[in-house]
């Protein structure tokens, strides 16, 4: 099974930017849509952005205009560029393949350790 490893999180002030990376151990991007999900303490895990096999993108209303998803197929890496960060963006961020569009039906067994994003006010 392909492994996904998230990185790039950190502590940033409100208004700042971060770029998250999701490195895949295989060519899963050519077979499945991939999403970035986030989970804040005490809240459910939500899909914030996704990219289909063909390159179509989805961005949740809560981050539209601030977050951009992209991928580099040659590097088997998915990215999430996050600009104009707000304290409410604070969460653990995960990447995972899924079914449907947007891919909210995450495939079993793909949740990684995630990367923590903390936005201070």
Report on the structure:
There is one protein chain. The chain contains no helices and eleven strands. Helices cover about 0% and strands about 50% of the residues. It has about 120 residues and is an all-beta fold. The model has no long low-confidence stretch (mean pLDDT about 95).
Task: Break the fold down into its secondary structure elements and pairings.
Elements: E1 4-7, E2 10-13, E3 18-24, E4 33-39, E5 46-51, E6 57-59, E7 67-72, E8 77-82, E9 91-99, E10 105-106, E11 115-120
Parallel strand pairs: 2-11
Antiparallel strand pairs: 1-3, 3-8, 4-5, 4-9, 5-6, 7-8, 9-10, 9-11
Counting DSSP E segments of at least 2 residues, the number of strands comes to 11
Residue share in helix: under 10%
Strand fraction equals over 45%
Write down the secondary-structure element order. Answer: EEEEEEEEEEE
How many helices in DSSP terms? 0
Structural class: mainly beta
Average the pLDDT over all residues and give the rounded result.
95
Large-scale geometry: globular
Radius of gyration: 13 Å
Distance between the termini: 40 Å
Uncertain residue segments: none
* Main beta-sheet annotation: 7 strands, mixed
Key terms for this structure?
121 residues, globular, mainly beta, 7-stranded mixed β-sheet
What would you say about this model in short?
The chain has 121 residues and is mainly beta. It is 0% helix and 50% strand. Strands 2, 4, 5, 6, 9, 10 and 11 form a seven-stranded mixed sheet that branches. It has a four-stranded antiparallel sheet with strand order 1-3-8-7, with no helix packed on it.
């Amino acid at each position: 099974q392909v492994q996904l490893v998230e990185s790039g999180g950190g502590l940033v002030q409100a208004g700042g930017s971060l770029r998250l990376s999701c490195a895949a151990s295989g060519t899963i991007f050519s077979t499945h849509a991939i999403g970035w999900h986030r989970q804040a303490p005490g809240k459910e895990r939500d899909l914030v952005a996704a990219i289909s096999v063909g390159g179509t993108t989805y961005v949740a209303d809560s981050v539209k205009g601030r977050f951009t998803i992209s991928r580099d197929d040659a590097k088997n890496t998915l990215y999430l560029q996050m600009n104009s960060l707000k304290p409410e963006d604070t969460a653990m961020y995960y990447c995972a393949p899924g079914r449907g569009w947007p891919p909210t039906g995450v495939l079993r067994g793909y949740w990684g350790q995630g990367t923590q994003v903390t936005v201070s006010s």
